[in-house]
Structure formats: C-alpha cells, structure tokens
Amino acid sequence: MRRLLPHPLLTLTLALLWLLLVNELSAGHLVLGAVLGWLIPFVTSPFWPERIRIRHLPTLLHYLGILIVDIVRGSFHVARLILRGPAHLRPAFVEVPLALRTDLAISLLANTISLTPGTVSAQLSGDRRTLIVHTLDTGDTDALVAEIKQRYESPLRKIFETGDESC
Amino acid sequence: MTDILLSLLILTGAAFTFIGSLGLARLRDFYTRLHGPTKATTLGVGCLLIASALYFSVRDEGISLHEVLVTLFLFITAPVSAHLLAKAALHLRVKSLAAVPRQRGEPHEPAE
C-alpha cells in the first residue's frame, strides 16, 4: 500500500490542482487528475524522503483562518508604516529559537512569518535551531518573539509534530 | 451592484500594489524595502484576483477558480523569494539600519 501510494495527501492535492488548472469539473478530468495525482508522487517519491502527516486537522483549519486574517492585518499595518515615512521606523533583527524539528514545519513557519505583520524571515541558522527574522517596526523584540512562538509555532508543532499529546 | 463591488476591489488592489511599490522606492535600506513587495502587494494582487474570479463567474456560466491557484502559488513563492533575498543580503553584508546579528553555523569571514 505504501509503495503503491507513497503520499496520499500529495495525490489529493495534485488531483485538486489539476481540476483548478483546467477550470472544469467533468468525469474525464476527474479521472485524469486522479491518474496524475497517483503517477507524479509515484515517480518522484525518491525526492520526498519525509512522510507528511497531519496529526491534528482542526488546528490546521484554525491556523489557516488565523493566517488569512493576519495577512490582511499585516498588509494594512505595512501600508500604514510606508505612508507614515521611513523616519519613524524602528527596524530590527530578532532571533527566534525554534522548537520545531521537521523541515516542512520550519518552512511553513518561515513562510508564515514573511506573510504576516511587518516581519520577513531572513535566515535559518546552520544547526536549524534559530530563525533570524527582520522586522520593520518594533519597540519590544522579546514580545515579538513570544508572539511568533505562541501564535504560529505552537499550532504548527501541534499539527505536524506532537499531535494531541501536548501543545 | 456587482460593478460597484468589482470597482471597489480593483481600486483597493491597485492602492495596495501602489503602496507596496512606494515602499520599495521610499524606504531606506534593503531589508526594510523587502517588506513592501512581500505584504502590501500580496493583498493588492489578492484583491485583483478576487475581482477577476467574481467577474468571470458572473459573466460566464459556472464559477471561475483559476484565480485560487494564482493566489496559492503567489502565497507560496513570495515569502520564499523574500527569504532568499534577505539571506543573500545577510551573506553579502548589505548595509542595514538594524543591527545585523552575528551569524551562527556559518564559517566566520572578515568583512571586506
């Protein structure tokens, strides 16, 4: 089963992606999407050493909700800062110590940070334990780190690493 | 009614895209400039795409969901490119208004 269908989630995603790409829902495209969804992960499975498992689906949905709200909030925030002028900015680099261990979770965290209010992830340290984040305007770097950890990292940890045990 | 909604979306989108580009021109160092295109522009393009999806769903039969894909790819690629730009800038020691952190896990090389 595992050899025939190495990445069930990827299969589903690719099939859905195909349907969106052709912008049409018909029996033929459903079958074609399913075939592509099966074939592509099968052929490329050596490139995907990590098996992706979503351990806590409600948290994932909640996380996506937070993300969308924060993207909108972040855009308004940055727009206001730009309009107010560069003289008022207090840019800073902060180091966020990571509790996440899997590659996927770390990349998602970095991605989230870049999409949300006034922060861009700049570099992951060589030992993968700290993420350097550049922020556009901050008065309190400790509070920022705490917010990133609490708002984004802990749900990601729950979704991809620990599941229900702890958070 | 739809026309008004569409115009509002397009105007909002254009405004955000403009502010994002303004940031690119107006801010003072490389790292702060990165923030304009990654965020304000994301919402700007997002608004334009929603307008496009709405317009083609109303005009033609059936809903148009192409735009969902564009949004998805944009949200995946914009932060990645921003991250790589920032990483390269850190590596090249580009002038920064904020104090640059000492880099761990990288061989230490003297600044030129």
Describe the structure.
The complex is a heterodimer of chains A (167) and B (112). Chain A is mainly alpha-helical and 167 residues long. Chain A folds into 2 domains: 40 residues, no CATH class; 106 residues, Alpha-Beta Plaits, CATH 3.30.70. Helix content of chain A is 57%, strand content 11%. In chain A, strands 1-3-2 form a 3-stranded antiparallel sheet, with helices on one face. In chain A, helix 1 crosses helix 2. The longest helix of chain A is centred in the middle third of the chain and has 28 residues. By secondary structure, chain B is an all-alpha fold. Chain B has one domain. Chain B has 3 helices and no strands. In chain B, helix 1 runs antiparallel to helix 2 and helix 2 packs antiparallel against helix 3. The radius of gyration of chain B is 19 Å and the shape is elongated. The relative contact order of chain B is 0.13. The C terminus of chain B is likely disordered.
Main attributes?
heterodimer; A: mainly alpha; Alpha-Beta Plaits; 2 domains; 3-stranded antiparallel beta sheet; B: 112 residues; mainly alpha; elongated
The spatial strand order of the largest sheet of chain A comes to: 1-3-2
Distance between the termini of chain B: 61 Å
Strand content of chain A: 5-15%
Helix content of chain A: 55-70%
Biggest protein-protein contact in the assembly: A-B, 42 and 48 residues
Helix share bin of chain B: over 70%
Describe how the helices and strands are arranged:
The complex is a heterodimer of chains A (167) and B (112).
Chain A: H1 8-22, H2 27-44, H3 57-84, E1 92-97, H4 103-115, E2 119-124, E3 130-135, H5 141-162
Antiparallel strand pairs in A: 1-3, 2-3
Helix pairs in contact in A: 1-2, 3-5, 4-5
Chain B: H1 2-26, H2 30-59, H3 66-92
